[in-house]
Amino acid sequence: MSDPTGRRAVAAVWRIESARIVGALARCTGDFALAEDLAQEALAEALVTWPREGVPRNPAGWLLTVGRRRAVDAFRRRATRDRKYAVLARDLGEGGVASGGPPPDREEDVVWDPDRIDDDVLALVFTACHPVLSREARVALTLRVVGGLTSDEIAKAFLVPTATVQARITRAKKTLGAARVPFAVPPADERAARLGSVLSVVYLIFTEGSSASSGDDLIRFDLAGEAQRLARVLARLVPDEPEVHGLLALLELTAARFPARTGPDGEPVLLEHQDRRRWDRAAIVRGRAALVRAERVGRGLGAYGLQAAIAECHAVAPSVGATDWERVVLLYEALGRLAPSPVVDLNRAVAVSMARGPAAALPVVDELAAGGALAGSHLLPSVRGELLTRLGRAEEARAELARAVELCGNERERAVLRGKIAALG
């Protein structure tokens, strides 16, 4: 008889341990694509075996051993007896697991190297986020092999067909193979440059989760939560990198506001109307601690650290009016010099409007509009409409907000914009 708890156990173990399993298999085989395939085969076998025979005492070891055994079988099918086969066969024990039979359940039978686990996961992250891959491929591969999400889950998160996600993952693995990307933590002189790609992928995942670009939900909690988990893993794996802690601080402090960002029916609640008592105080504590860590191990805050410092200004303020907006303006100015972006300039304009009034901020927004950098985004007309509303220029504000509605892809945000238009009379 099949036990449904077995399938739930498989899902839970896979979400927690998949990165370690794929990383260990990649280290042993030297083939990233093969390792991911082997891990998926082990997962499929667990979905059949565990509900029928029960969950093994060492679930992660069970999956790893099955994956290693499948690796031996794959090398055998290729009729090779090279060094890789010899190493795998010796590790598994001649005549033991490699020769067939059920996977072992005793920990002493399981090949598991705890001293290499951190390096394996770190190598996995750097491989999945390699610069030779497109941004979309990095995101899909990271969520698949590091986050343990299925293709269906990734497709649902980004509102694309499952086949599209599967194609991206397949192409990504082929690209890594064609480029002969080694499965290894990059040397120190390359790590800093490559780390930026890793952090940008995690940040992109969180951004899409925290402010969904399309669909009916404002926040995709699973996606944002996965990005937070990945950031925590990175903070443990590379504890001396300040921007890793800066990113973790930013994610924690931003997610702390999630409980108050939506109403009972999922409708957005603007910052000035949020019940700050509902903010996650534990997340704020974690975020501020990570920000302190970023300051301690670095020589000044980087781009993610500066954004975290801005989020901290909001987190510690008792109200919108009591927020230290002048400090927020200064932080955005520093961020604009370090990581210039029209979005940063637009956010600075919002801070300027809060610190010095809408008339001081409107020229900044007008300059951005003239430059055309945000022509396809709803953010600029949304901000400009708000500033014009506060200046009493209702007709112009209505036109800007209507433009924002046309450009916005998220139904919840469109509803808020329509409400602002209605309020103008």
Walk me through this protein's architecture:
- This protein is mainly alpha-helical.
- 70% of the residues lie in helices and 0% in strands.
- It has 20 helices and no strands.
- Helix 1 crosses helix 5.
- It is elongated, with a radius of gyration of 25 Å.
- The chain starts with a helix and ends with a helix.
- About 5% of the residues have low confidence.
End-to-end Cα distance, whole Å, is 65 Å
Mean pLDDT: 85
**Order of SSEs, N→C?**
HHHHHHHHHHHHHHHHHHHH
Q: What radius of gyration results from the CA coordinates?
A: 25 Å
Give the % helix: 55-70%
Main sheet overview: none
Q: Tell me, what's the shape?
A: elongated
Total helices: the number is 20
In percent, how much strand structure appears in the residues? under 5%
User: Which class best fits the helix and strand makeup?
Assistant: mainly alpha
The overall strand count is 0
Which regions have little confidence, pLDDT < 50, spanning 5+ residues? 94-115
Keywords: Sigma factor, Transcription, Transcription regulation
Domain DUF6596: 194-294
Domain RNA polymerase sigma factor 70 region 4 type: 127-176
Organism: Saccharothrix lopnurensis
Throw out a few tags for this protein:
425 residues, elongated, mainly alpha
Could you give the topology of this structure?
Elements: H1 4-29, H2 32-53, H3 59-77, H4 83-92, H5 117-128, H6 135-146, H7 151-158, H8 162-178, H9 188-210, H10 221-237, H11 242-255, H12 258-261, H13 281-297, H14 303-316, H15 325-338, H16 342-356, H17 358-371, H18 379-390, H19 394-407, H20 411-423
